[in-house]
Write a structure and sequence with these properties.
This protein has a domain at 12-121: Leucine-rich repeat, LRR (right-handed beta-alpha superhelix), CATH 3.80.10.10. It contains 12 helices and 29 strands. The strands form 4 sheets. The protein has a 23-stranded mixed β-sheet.
Length: 625
């Protein structure tokens, strides 16, 4: 939720100056030098990089060939991004001067062969993405086996339609952790081609299949016991005339996590798939971007023991979905589930049979649906008793009082997020919040000035940005508050925040603040402050504020570009640090006194001079007579 901004040390000034001279976007992140030349029309437009560059992004440009001398001057290079160019020619000596290169992404280019890359020059490479290049076959031979430290490999394209027995032989001696394969609609797969994979943490098959799904079964059986997590993407099961039992892949497997992404299916697959999963060793199931036809509500049959602990359903596309009826058999496996996400699925009702059965659930995310107070908590018997995190962002909730009171029995709830709804306070009575709540996000609602009166004093992090708050009041009880986000409101002053002794981070940007005194800021013991993009009145006090921002140890986010004058008109859009108001304009009384003294002194001097002159002339007249 918060972003730490740190001032550059003095030794970084030269580095920043170099970047400006080279017209290159670069910066230091924890001792690393990062250069971003992405989408700069390189090499037509020059892009230079310092010799100590460790991360270089040249993606989304017009590079057609890469040569040894292109990177020979940056021997400390560790990460190189070359994706989305037109690379079709690779110098055999490339990377000989980059012995520390660990990460290479050269995907979405025009390489006709994987062997075009000189693997002998990449002794410490850990991550390689060479996917979506137009090679028509995959043959990882002996030279590929030289990548002894390779952990992540992504390859293939939608035109790959067959594998030979030796296609992946070069992987046999590698200790891969992740393997991502992209294919087209397979015509031929020689069994055991993928058996070379073993002990992986994750395998992703982006298969783009619909005609030869039975080939997928053979592939799946070869790899299902080679990994802890399997992801299948881009399957269209609706175009197949017969039902293919792809769920047979999981029978007797050791999979712990399974993901289906961008899948088109119907009721012929929903029930068998869920039945097999509930009887498998799978602990985590994710269904992301599921296109369903007709009724895809699974019927849950009896089962012996359920291992499923985490379930996620995202981006459900089912125009005929009307209502979901809970089934009594659900209760048994819901009791063990610890985390559920149902995001952007058109969900508008959560039956009590489900919510009352979730006795072990610690995390619940129901974002981007159409839920209301009475449909999420329809007079159920104290639902979600073990809940620690509840997220209901972007729904149709209206009443803060009802939502707060519903948490009173949740003795372990620490995080509650209900951003981007239409919530108002909704009651004049105190809200019975759970005493365990530490983090509350009510960003993007319709809360007013008295909101602090109805919030729990246990909060450590509070986000009420983008509401309708103009005055900060009733905050003295918030003694535990460490982070406070008030961006995008109508706040005029920070005067009442000095009572928050624990506050360390404050965001009040994009409000109606015209001025802040140094005394107000010094009274709050902050480590990070953001009050940019306010309509500052550049009066005489602005120079003290500017000095504070430049010299304080507090991290001032967006300084100096985000702090500009709104008034007077003569200074509009000027950065505060560049404003210089004459001393006389800010000290008119003192200036008047000084001018008066100067006038008196001048008069006295003139009087004294005249008197002296007269006396001299008088003496001269006496001598002449």
């Amino acid at each position: 939720m918060m972003k730490h901004i740190q001032k550059l040390p003095n030794k970084s000034v030269g580095f920043v100056g170099l970047c400006l001279v080279l017209l290159t976007r670069c910066g230091r992140i924890e001792g690393e030098t990062v250069v971003n030349c992405s989408a700069q029309n390189y090499p037509s437009k020059p892009c230079s990089f310092p010799p100590d560059t460790t991360t270089l992004d040249l993606s989304h440009n017009n590079i057609e060939k890469i040569l040894r001398q292109d990177f020979s001057g940056i021997r400390q290079l560790k990460k190189l991004y070359l994706q989305f160019n037109q690379i079709n020619n690779v110098d055999p000596l490339i990377f000989q001067d980059n012995p520390e290169l660990e990460y290479l992404d050269i995907s979405n280019n025009q390489l006709l062969e994987i062997s075009a890359l000189p693997f002998t020059n990449l002794p410490v490479l850990k991550h390689l993405d060479i996917s979506n290049n137009p090679y028509d076959n995959i043959q990882l031979g002996d030279t590929f086996a030289l990548l002894r430290h390779l952990q992540v490999l992504k390859l293939g394209n939608p035109d790959i339609v067959s594998f030979g027995k030796d296609s992946f032989q070069g992987l046999s001696g590698l200790a891969l952790k992740e393997f991502h394969l992209i294919t087209g609609d397979f015509r031929e797969y020689e069994p055991r081609s993928l058996k070379v994979l073993h002990d992986l943490e994750k395998i992703t098959l982006e298969v783009n299949m619909w005609q030869n799904i039975d080939v997928l079964l053979t592939m799946g059986k070869d790899i299902v016991n080679s990994t802890k997590a399997l992801k299948l993407a881009n399957l269209d099961l609706l175009r197949i005339e017969k039902v293919i039992p792809i769920y047979d892949i999981f029978l007797n497997s050791d999979l712990k996590s399974f993901t289906l992404q961008n899948i088109s299916t119907d009721g012929n697959y929903c029930t068998p798939l869920l039945t097999v999963i509930l009887n498998s060793r799978i602990e985590e199931l994710t269904l992301d971007t599921l296109h369903t036809k007709a009724n895809c509500t699974p019927i849950i049959h009896s089962f012996e023991k359920v291992m499923l602990k985490r379930f996620s359903l995202k981006n459900l596309d089912n125009p005929k979905f009307i209502f979901f009826l809970p089934q009594p058999t659900m209760k048994k496996f819901l009791e063990k589930v610890q985390a559920i996400s149902v995001i952007n699925c058109g969900m508008f009702f959560l039956p009590c049979l489900i919510s009352d059965s979730l006795l072990s659930m610690e995390t619940l995310d129901l974002s981007n649906n159409t839920l209301q107070e009475e449909t999420l908590f329809p007079r159920c018997n104290k639902p979600f008793p073990a809940l620690k995190s509840l997220v209901i962002d972007t729904n149709t909730f209206l009443n803060l009082s009802e939502l707060g009171n519903y948490t009173s029995h949740m003795k372990y709830l620490v995080n509650f997020s209900a951003s981007d709804n239409k919530i108002v306070i909704g009651s004049q009575y105190a809200i019975n919040w759970t005493r365990s709540l530490k983090r509350l996000n009510l960003r993007g609602n319709q809360l007013s000035d008295d909101v602090f009166m109805y919030l729990p004093d246990t909060l450590e992090v509070l986000d009420i940005s983008y509401n309708a708050i103009s005055v900060i009041a009733n905050v003295k009880k918030m003694n535990n508050l460490v982070e406070l986000y008030l961006s995008g409101n109508k706040i005029l002053s920070l005067a009442d925040l000095s009572s928050l002794s624990s506050l360390r981070l404050l965001y009040v940007d994009r409000n109606k603040i015209t001025g802040v005194t140094v005394e107000e800021l010094s009274a709050i013991h902050l480590t990070e402050l953001k009050f940019s993009y306010n309509p500052f009145d550049c009066n005489c006090n602005i120079r003290y504020l500017s000095r504070y921002c430049q010299s304080t140890s507090v991290a001032i986010v967006d300084w100096p570009k985000g702090y500009r004058c709104e008034t007077p008109e003569s200074l509009k859009d000027r950065e505060l640090q560049s404003v210089s108001i004459p001393w006389a304009s800010c000290n008119k009384g003192a200036f008047a006194c000084i001018m008066l003294v100067q006038m008196v002194v001048t008069i006295l001097i003139i009087w004294y001079a005249i008197r002296k002159w007269k006396r001299r002339n008088y003496s001269q007249v006496l001598r002449e007579t």
